[in-house]
Amino acid sequence: MLRGLILLLSGMAAVSAFTSSRSVVRHRRSAALQMVQGQGSGYKKVFVAGGSKGTGRLIIDKLLASGAEVVALVRSGDAFDYKTVEGSLDGCDACITTLGGSTEGGEDGKMVDYVGNNNVIEAAGILGVTRVVLVTSIGCGDSKDAPPPSVYEVLKKVLEQKEKAERVLQRYYTNSNWTIIRPGGLVTDKATGKASLTEDSSGKVHKSNL
């Protein structure tokens, strides 16, 4: 039986509700979805970046099923255009970004893992979006030692860009309502309801559990 492992970092406004110690906390619903709905927060209009497939698409489906209004940025290329991002975010009260690209980046070497996420975070801060969730990866920040060294070397460039985006979020939302989710390896399958939020582990997780 596969039990996914998800590394969770959280801003002060959310940390007590989800992880008050270093123990594993099990959650039945999508981890990212809980970050915007699990506290009875009342967020009505949620922006999702990276919503064309995978985790982002699954998050959108769950948000719509819950009755939330969703604005989705479905093409990663659009995330490079700050004005497009800002216009899409305007009027939203929560934001989830799952943006990520290949290890090679775009034609000019820019990587959506940093540039796109930076645009989302900056626009959210300027517009006063009160809840921001950033999905990155195990291997970022103080979880560098979690993946096997051979895996880290292959993904190093991507992980460094994701980590830069994490630092931007922490800078913009120093004392506010932010969450960084660092999932282990993502696999495509039906939700098991057995993903775990933890502060010090790595592993694999179904996209639908994330």
Give the secondary structure arrangement, pairings included.
Layout (H helix, E strand, L loop, with lengths): L4 E6 L1 H7 L6 E2 L4 H7 L7 E5 L4 H12 L3 E5 L8 H8 L4 E4 L17 H13 L4 E4 L13 H24 L5 E6 L1 E3 L8 E3 L5 E3 L4
Parallel strand pairs: 1-9, 3-4, 3-5, 5-6, 6-7, 8-10
Antiparallel strand pairs: 1-7, 2-9
Helices and strands, in order, run as EHEHEHEHEHEHEEEE
Shape: globular
Gyration radius (Cα, Å) is 16 Å
CATH class: Alpha Beta
CATH T-level fold name: Rossmann fold
* CATH architecture verdict: 3-Layer(aba) Sandwich
Helix content: 25-40%
Average residue-wise pLDDT:
74
Strand order of the largest sheet: 2-9-1-7-6-5-3-4
The largest sheet is: 8 strands, mixed
Q: What is the CATH H-level superfamily?
A: NAD(P)-binding Rossmann-like Domain
By DSSP (H or I, 4+ residues per run), the number of helices equals 6
- Overall domain count: 1
Q: CA-to-CA gap between the ends? A: 17 Å
| Low-confidence runs | 1-6, 10-29, 204-210
Query: What is the quaternary state of this protein?
Result: single chain
Overall strand count: 10
How much of the sequence lies in strands comes to: 15-25%
Keywords: Signal
Protein name: NAD(P)-binding domain-containing protein
Signal peptide: 1-17
Pfam families: NAD_binding_10
